[in-house]
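Budget justification note: compute hours in this period were largely spent on complex prediction jobs such as the one shown. Inputs:
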Amino acid sequence: MKIVIIKYNAGNIMSVENAINRLGYNCIVTDDPEQIKIADKVIFPGVGEASSAMHYLKEKKLDQLIKSLKQPVLGICLGQQLMCTYSEEGNTACMGVFETQVKKFPPKELVPHMGWNNLQNLKGDLFKGVSESDNVYFVHSYYAEVCENTTAICDYILPFSAAMQKNNFYATQFHPEKSADVGTIILKNFLEIKSDIIKY
Amino acid sequence: MLKKRIIPCLDIKDGRTVKGINFIDIRDAGDPIELAKKYVTEGADELVFLDITATIEKRKTLVELVRKIAKEINIPFTVGGGINSVEDVSAIINAGADKVSINSSAVKRPELISEVASQYGSQCMVVAIDTKFENGEWMVYVSGGKIPTSLKTVSWAKQAETLGAGEILLTSMNNDGTKNGFAIDITNEVSQAVNIPVIASGGAGAKEHFKEIFQRSKASGALAASVFHFGEIPIPELKNYLKTQNIPVR
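Corresponding output:
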């Protein structure tokens, strides 16, 4: 299986690469459109700022490429946010894979939302073997609003999309690569999705 | 609900863990990777590696160690000790650490906090504060607690937040090593004064101390070293106890 991690100007790529390797798979980190197109699985990670990341993706025409992919794609953290329609961070128009917007948490509790939190209303392939009492690791100041693509909800200050899925596009706001055994299960579930049969 | 974090701290010297350990199932107690993996299995929420290597030459081994830790560990970890510049931070982050903590170098040159935060984001910038209560005031100390400063702890914590710190690691020198419990008053004061997570450190000696610090301050996490290293408080037992006390833990 050919796994590609999309390289762009947002950090945290090595953590994802290490997590894939721990599962016994190899992966390549690249921004080469041809490599990305022929991959069986594409991972779009990211820690960083939305407008500068989106600007870079547009410059490289990676935004259009990502939207057009037919194989399973997993956005993580900023990756998930950039797959929404719009982000308040830097007033940024995003890719619009998921029909929802990204907003800043109102400062009613500590922001960023940092640490372990549990998931609710789990749906879909990513959460096979994961239960609602399980915790995953979050670090973020912006959140995607709950929408029809939401496959897991987390409640911090307000309920938000902890995970989403639309056709072959998957995304998590939390970091599966830093979420101990639960995160490993979620990554493994993604890597084991049959590329030719996308079900939801 | 967001969980309170339990954070073991490992002191590292020349690439090895310093304090003794009596976990029977660890082959090499001095191997930071083995100890870290043990903590992950037990349910630690995060790890802190504090480098106390004295010589600059041997410090280079730290980056190599961080790279190995990142390959093996699937929870977030922080690296601190002797980090003086953005270049030092870059080396540690690029090797795979999630966060870096700075202490004396932030006091010496507070702009370092902003420089790191703007390059890598506040979420990876931990400002560690060593504090001591004297003459009726909680004051900031640097150089591993050897040198006093004129900074008051609460105002320094607020300044660090303004400059871009994403977290405060607050160690009470009065409590550290006593096993009589965390410094509740200053931890509470700092955690009320800032809107970023505060990790309490210094003084853990019993499970009840963890309950107290979470019930009587807004601390987001509690850090300890020896009680975990020597197996005095097994992490699973601590977490079960905290659950019975209605403290949210993973």
